[in-house]
């Protein structure tokens, strides 16, 4: 069965015109598209790479949360700046969101973005771990959890004298009495 595909929109001005989603989740993978400081109200932080990076990261965070992910699930980011001299400000904003997560990251200079007032664009990829499976109280395989626990706590790993095969030879393991004499097959 194919994993479900979920698309997330932030209402950004270019999503409809270009035909893309802010984020897409397929199974446990979430990809967030290149995100700038452009909002429905206009560009946040004109001329300020730090403010623009902060807005882009807030938009990314909101998209991740809508897709069922968090910043802690991010495994890779890509930062594009129109002037590499802005790397300290963009890096500082990135660290404010990801210092504890430390995803693989790339920061490169590009000649320009879609609007000349935009100074930075950021992408993110996340992997959401599968939730742990609930233990089956009765797996129907004859497994007795209480007996398994007793065996783990036994100094010999098993209780009672039960035959056990190892390397094609039947051995008798017992915590009671002397070992049987002679080989058993």
Task: Please describe the topology of this protein.
Elements: E1 5-8, H1 15-18, E2 23-26, E3 29-35, E4 38-39, E5 42-43, H2 49-66, E6 74-81, H3 87-98, E7 104-109, E8 120-127, H4 145-153, E9 162-166, E10 169-173
Parallel strand pairs: 6-7
Antiparallel strand pairs: 1-2, 2-3, 3-8, 4-5, 6-8, 9-10
Helix pairs in contact: 2-3
Architecture overview:
This protein is 23% helix and 28% strand. Helix 2 packs parallel to helix 3 (87-98). The chain starts with a strand and ends in a 12-residue tail after the last strand. It is elongated, with a radius of gyration of 28 Å. With 185 residues, it is an alpha+beta fold. The relative contact order is 0.15. It has four helices and ten strands. The protein folds into two domains: 5-127, 60s Ribosomal Protein L30, Chain: A (2-Layer Sandwich), CATH 3.30.1330; 144-180, no CATH class.
First-residue to last-residue Cα separation: 47 Å
Structural class: alpha+beta
Number of domains: 2
Global morphology: elongated
């Amino acid at each position: 069965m194919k994993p479900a595909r979920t698309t997330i929109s932030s209402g950004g001005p270019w999503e409809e015109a270009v035909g893309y989603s802010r984020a897409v989740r397929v199974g446990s993978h979430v990809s967030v598209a290149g995100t700038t400081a452009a909002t429905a109200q206009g560009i946040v932080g004109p001329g300020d790479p730090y403010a623009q990076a902060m807005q882009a990261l807030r938009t990314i965070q909101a998209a991740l949360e809508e897709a069922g992910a968090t910043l802690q699930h991010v495994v890779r980011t890509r930062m594009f700046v129109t002037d590499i001299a802005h790397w300290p400000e963009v890096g500082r904003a990135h660290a404010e969101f990801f210092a504890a997560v430390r995803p693989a990251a790339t920061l490169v200079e590009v000649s320009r973005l879609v609007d000349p007032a935009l100074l930075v664009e950021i992408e993110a990829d996340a992997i959401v771990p599968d939730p742990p499976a609930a233990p089956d109280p009765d797996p129907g395989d004859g497994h007795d959890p209480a007996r398994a626990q007793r065996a783990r706590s036994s100094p010999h790993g098993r209780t009672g004298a039960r035959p056990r095969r190892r390397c094609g030879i039947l051995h008798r393991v017992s915590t009671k009495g002397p070992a049987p004499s002679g080989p058993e097959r």
